[in-house]
Every structure is written in structure tokens, then in C-alpha cells.
Amino acid sequence: MAEQASTINATFNETAANGTAKVPATPEGMAMAYTSLFLMAILPIFFGSFRSVKYHKEQKESGEKPETMSSKDAAMFPVIASCTLFGIYIVFQIFSKEYINLLLAVYFFFLGVLALAHIASPIVSKLIPEAFPNKEYHLIFTQGVKEKKEELMNYEFDRKDILCLAGCAVIGIWYLVKKHWIANNLFGLAFAVNGVEILSLNKVSTGCILLGGLFVYDIFWVFGTNVMVTVAKSFDAPIKLVFPQDLLEKGLAANNFAMLGLGDIVIPGIFIALLLRFDLSSSSKVKSKTYFYAGFIAYILGLGTTIFVMHFFKHAQPALLYLVPACVGIPVFVALVKGDAKAMFL
């Protein structure tokens, strides 16, 4: 999910569904669409960051070492993302878009159901009454025998989890059959929260390398070629959040969409989550979350700038062009003022 989300991560755009005619966007419709996208972008970062802290704590308590991205991985990521993006572009030029998107729909159906269930399960468990006949299960899957025996899966769940999974599967079928924008956004938000929670950087300097490389990647593929925009329009999968600009005129059947790629949420989000973990790991007795809020406010400013510039110039914008300087620059400036720069980059 992360690789695909980061591949098509750069554009706000308008598109129609199923080739039907679009109702021209009104100022009210555009304001509603951009405000909704704005909120859908910042909420996964906020909640995903705190879930990231909990996830890392559970990993340490269980004795597992969380997988983190190294500086070398961060430096290579834009290159890999570029190759993947161009590869997808070539595939869409050679093969039928309908067949490719059918395969993607099936793939993201399973991925989306699991991602949504991971987010919804704790909430559903609290809502189900105590009288529910619950029972726990433990699924273990191994390969090999005796000393060569290797554990591949060790998963504990209960009937509440199964009930939640069934509900998420209904949403998945809705997405698979109708490709409705609400179902798309439910999956997209689940991917974003899971991405911010689980993907991890080992230190702030690694985050700076990653964001710096994707800053160049984003500008090149949006302004230098038509590859990014072409793929974003052709790639019919829940790796972007969409909101109709003609909702007021056409209701839930609206089809004139503004969109934001998940990479514009997840990539800055994992950096902001790292800042929160840095705040909470500080030797200071007061856990002020200064750098987390500095990064979060920076993201809000950068995203607002993206929307303004996109609307003013009426052209797809590489969001990381505005998000990276804000999300890196403001927290680093705060660290310099507070004298924490050395500790931050260790």
C-alpha cells in the first residue's frame, strides 16, 4: 500500500466518473470539496501519529524490533517510486485500462477490508454489548518441522473481530460493485491511518532525506511530464481521497471530483509521527509535544498553500513542493531556537 500510495501522490485535480458529463463547479461546491479534502488529510496524520506511538510501545513490550526506514532506504525511495510510476504509466499505455483496474479493484478489496477492520475493530468491540456470545481464537501458521519449524503467522482474534471484518467486507463489496466515492474514501482513510501508524523512520535526518528526495520527485513528475497526472486519472483504486465539487447539485451521484493522493498524507505523516515520538522520548519531564504540533501546523499551512495555488493557477500541483519546506523547515527552526537541533538529528 505505501509504495502505491507514494507513487501517485502529487496532484489535486478534477475528473469525471465513468465518462459522464460534469456539472461545472460552483464556488460553494469547490469550497466544500477543498474543505473536506483538507479535513480528510489532517485527521489521519493526527490520529495516525498517536497510534504510531502506541504501536511502537507495543512492539517494544513484545520484544519485537519495529521495522524502520534507514537513510539508505530513504535515499533510494524516490528512485524506486519513479521507476514504479513510469512502469505503471507504460502498462496503461499498452494494456486496456479497464482490465488493469479490474485486477486492482480485487487486490484493493482485500487490502482495504483488512485495513478498515484494523481501524474499526477497537471501536466495534466497545459498541458490542457484553451479552454478545464472544469467544477467542488463535490462528498459528508455520512451515517446516522440528528445528526447521518457522512461524509465518500468529494471530489472535475473537468473534467481535469477525463481526467487524464482515461489516468491512460489506463496504468492500460496495466499493467493488459501485466504486462509490464514499467507499473509496473509507478505504483511503484506513490506508492513510495505517500507513502513518505502521511505517516508520529511524531518525529525523532520515525523514529529511526522504522528504527532500520526494520533493524533487514530485516537482519533476508533475511539472516536467504528464506522467503523474495521467496515471492519477487512469489508476482507479482507493489510493487517493476524492470529494465531489457538484455535491450540492447532484447529491451522492456527483462526479466532478477534486482529489488528493494518499502519498501527500502518508509521507509527511510518518515524519510528523516521528516528531511526536521524539517529543515523548525527550529527557525533559514535561512532554509538551512541541515538535509534533510544529510539524502538524506546518502541514496545515503547506496543504492550505497547495489548495490556494492550485485553485489560482487552475493546474495540478505537486503538493510536496509546498509541504516539504513547511514540514521540515518549521520544526527544524523551532529546534534551533530551543537548542534541540543536535538532539533531534542524533
UniProtKB/TrEMBL annotation:
Example GO biological process: membrane protein proteolysis
Protein topology in the membrane: Multi-pass membrane protein
Any single Pfam family the record assigns to this protein: Peptidase_A22B
Subcellular location: Endoplasmic reticulum membrane
GO molecular function: aspartic endopeptidase activity, intramembrane cleaving
UniProt keyword Hydrolase present: yes
PANTHER family on file: MINOR HISTOCOMPATIBILITY ANTIGEN H13, SIGNAL PEPTIDE PEPTIDASE
Protein family (similarity comment): Belongs to the peptidase A22B family.
Protein name: Minor histocompatibility antigen H13
